[in-house]
Amino acid sequence: MSDNDTKKPTGDSQTPPKGAPSETREAPGSTPKHPPAGAKLDTPPAAHSSPTAPPPPPAAKPAGPPPPKNPGFVTCTIDGKEVVVKPGTNMVEAARMVGSDIPYFCYHPRLSIAANCRMCMVEASNAPKLVPACQTPLAEGQVIKTNTLKVKEQQRAVMEFLLLNHPVDCSICDQAGECKLQDYYMRYDYRPSRLEGGKVMKNKRKVLGPRVVLDQERCIICSRCVRFMNEIPKEPQLGIFGRGSHEVIDTFPGSELNSNYSLNTVDICPVGALLNRDFRFRARAWFLSAAPSVCTGCSRGCNIYADFMGQETYRYRPRENEAINKSWMCDQGRMSYKYLNLGRVLSAVVGRQQGAGTARPEVARKEAIKAAAKALAEVKGMVAVLASPLASNEDLLATLTFAKGTLGAREVYVGGRPQGDADHYLMTADKNPNRKGLELIAAGLGLALKPFEELVKAIDGGKVKALYAVGTEVPGNVETFAQAAAKLDVFVAQAMNESPLTAQATVLLPASTHVEYDGSFVQVDGIIQRFRKAYPSKGDAVAHWALAAELTRELGGTAAWTTSREAFRELGKQVAELAQFDWDKASPPDREKPGINPLPTAADGRPPGYREFGAPRVRGL
Amino acid sequence: MADTHKPASPPNPEAPNPDIDAYAHEAELEAHLQTKRMYVNMGPSHPAMHGTVRMKVELEGENIASSDCEIGFLHRGFQKSCENVTWTQCLPYTDRLNYVSAMMNNFGFLNAVEKLIGLEIPERAQYIRVIGSELHRIHDHLTCVGATGMELGGFAPFLFAVEARELVMDRVAELTGARLTTNFGRIGGMNRDLPEGWIEKVHKSLDKVMELVTEIDGLLTRNRIFVDRTKDTGVISAEDAIDYGWTGPCLRACGVNYDVRKAKPYWVYDRFDFDVPVGEKGDNYDRYLMRIEELKQSERILRQALKQIPAGPIILDDWRIALPPKPEVYGTIEGVISHFKLVMEGIQVPAGEVYDCTEAANGELGWYMVSDGSGRPYKVHVRAPGYPILSAVPSIIKGKMLADLIPTFDTINMIGGEVEQ
């Protein structure tokens, strides 16, 4: 141990950091009004956020330790840099604030502390041995060193043990390229193997549940997945079985990992042990680009990254948002990406399908817009409007403005996906991402919202002869509604996906999905969230708002907006809730690397080997 | 000056047309002197304009009133391309700088990256780099001397030079696997060792090469035509040369004793006994002589290096820098991780900037590099020795005869690849 042992905190001899409460001492235990500049811990780890623990009132203990330098906070030194944190903050989080990266596998800020990987051991001035940084709260005046020889030796030893029985799998492993073992090996070990003899063999493809498969050989028994299942969805379905080298993760006998949150275990798995059965072997991580987006599986609006290559979305991954989804998302939402790729309406069609299996004449979108405008012009004032809460704010603003201004509509029937199951955590029963947005916009534009059932009745009763549909998802039975729609004289539909209903459209216009343009949704709690474009629209599709603009112009109206930003800025003024929203500022950052970013060169949108946001870094948390 | 081309009177449609009428116009019977300046394009496709460079020459009679060098026909965006690939992947691009001595570019680049990381490469690798560099210096100078001879009317020296060059190329091909674009060496050392029996072969090849150099020397150095064309033509003073940023044999021909190998010895150059030839006048003849002498000095260095070269590793044993041996890659997880990370993300060069230079065949080959701590360069700038040298040509040649441009362009040895990048 160094001379740190004898070093005692110097008390008030140094000047406190700028902004720290000085002589005017507040009541013990209360948070100061002006916290010190260094104490910005925005997201205190759940397990250690106990700022309620009152610091000892300095005057009460004359013989005790010297009073804290910044009352109400803990002041200590990490790698020679002073750091001021809330009491109870662990060393990993504190070190991150001063730019020292302490490596870890098992620690996760949103889970309980296991301290079993031993990767985060650091030297502390008040302990004779190394201490696990994830588990140890900082003490006043403590001196932490994260890069001494002793610490490095420990990190090397841990890496060597972890890799000892790790299979030689990088070339076939889905995790390769975003694997902590790889990152840490290059940073903290970089030595050859000293293993003599064979590796321990375990089950390489243990199917844990409908969506997750486990490679037990790759597992480093960090227990993150077990703790996640116990603590976040509170469905304890995983456990650790066996001892020593035979220790494995598994489900309890007779049960399977079928929680709606099971795929989060794949995300938090620091290695390639837990794998997404849907994504497995479909793409290499370094070929995927990520666009910050929002999940459209339900009205929760979990923040996600849409990982894409070319014009295909391959997976959703949760993006951190403290207010909505923390670091998690549900499996159903995660699997909801498929409609972006499959069964898309890719070109415009004029005329109904004449029988099952018959080809419909595809026309250029421009021709179809002309045909639609001609048909709609004849029935102006008598057109019913069906709007889907799957469409974004921009889409709804533009299409409903068109419906009201040009078509003379006064009411809007609400379409969208049928209600589904809610669960106990994130998933809501409303499977549409923007119902709130539709309500706000309809109110702002002075349009009445009517339930879908009334539309069915009106068509059946012969009252509605012409329909303009923004999105063809319907809450009822599609087949039945398609039969009803066959009776319509004019049915102009803007659709993302093929369905029995789109077959009945007299004019079918291809619409973009939310990963194909920039826009925003209003989630269930009224939070407006921006999503970003990942790739250009497939086929001949354009966004709903752009189709509305084309129709407006064709019918002799003016639609000046040419981007979703302009559409929002111009039309959003009519809706009080949207007028407050700063469309540009709310945009999630696309790239974190400052300065000029290399332009995408390949079809996958980035130069080969280019990782998510420029400089390679350790994956996630 | 009156424009004599302007017709004295407006054209008269009735007047006899000299082109079709069967008698000469009276004006044509006067052989008046052409006083208008003539513009001649040399290149971009001209055998004497090595590579593809265009020289716009304004002639007054046979004298060059002014000239303008236009480069860029061989521009490939070298510096920008480097920013989009890993440090290791830049190496093949450096081959295409001075393609006549690719290994010197390779090693210069590697040396600069190693300086940025702070690496000391194994001794044997340093020797191999010296051997490769000097082989390619011989290769480069032979090309220059041979081409000079040929463009001044002597074909035999060119044939001798090409024969000698071919011998060097064969040895280079045995060493690197490629005749021209070698892509040899890796950050931290070399990618392969000397082939078996290669040292003996090089000794024998050098005997033959030096025989041929003696032949060329005998054919050119005291050749009346050659001396008349090169002596006192293309003269530049030492001060001007320094001001323009000249380096290498062209600068030494002006009498400035500056050679990076002596001024700032790198690798193991301080262990060899060799001389740096220095000229006096800075004319084409001196520049030619520099090269003939440097051929001999390179041979001296080579023979010493081949004799002294120690056994040992050829690349650092650090898996953050050098790829692990293949059995480790295929057989151990440590090896496969290291290989994966080095190939996919590149060597993690610490953030910082560096300038480093080596003595290439035409002078100081400088590298200014910036790293942001990732696996790819943030900036790679190369100071090609040919660039400042070429930029001085218009001032050297101003007022001189057009015929002097050829030997001047020959002896400065402009290489399109490195000048235009």
Query: How are helices and strands ordered from N to C of chain B?
Result: EEEHHHHHHHHHHHHHEEEHHH
Strand order of the largest sheet of chain B: 1-2-3
- Largest beta-sheet characterization of chain B: 3 strands, antiparallel
Rg of chain B, nearest Å: 26 Å
Distance between the termini of chain A: 31 Å
Helix content of chain B: 40-55%
**Can you count the helices of chain A?**
14
What is the terminal separation of chain B in angstroms? 43 Å
Supply the helix-strand structural class of chain B: mainly alpha
Any idea what the shape of chain B is?
globular
Q: Biggest sheet of chain A, open or closed, and with what strands and sense?
A: 8 strands, mixed
For the structure shown, list the relevant keywords.
heterodimer, A: alpha/beta, five-stranded mixed β-sheet, 23 strands, elongated, disordered N terminus, disordered C terminus, B: 421 residues, mainly alpha, globular
Write the layout of secondary structure elements.
The complex is a heterodimer of chains A (621) and B (421).
Chain A: E1 74-78, E2 81-85, H1 91-97, E3 121-124, E4 131-132, E5 143-145, H2 149-164, H3 180-189, E6 206-207, E7 212-214, H4 224-231, E8 238-241, E9 248-251, H5 263-268, E10 274-276, E11 289-294, E12 303-309, E13 312-318, H6 331-334, E14 348-350, E15 362-363, H7 365-378, E16 383-387, H8 393-405, E17 411-414, H9 435-445, E18 448-450, H10 452-460, E19 466-470, H11 478-485, E20 490-495, E21 507-510, E22 519-522, E23 528-531, H12 544-554, H13 564-571, H14 576-579
Parallel strand pairs in A: 1-5, 16-17, 16-19, 17-18, 19-20, 20-21
Antiparallel strand pairs in A: 1-2, 3-4, 3-5, 6-7, 7-10, 8-9, 11-12, 12-13, 14-15, 14-21, 22-23
Chain B: E1 38-42, E2 54-60, E3 63-70, H1 78-83, H2 91-95, H3 102-117, H4 123-151, H5 155-176, H6 198-220, H7 224-230, H8 238-244, H9 248-252, H10 260-263, H11 284-308, H12 326-331, H13 333-344, E4 352-360, E5 363-371, E6 377-383, H14 386-397, H15 402-412, H16 416-420
Antiparallel strand pairs in B: 1-2, 2-3, 4-5, 5-6
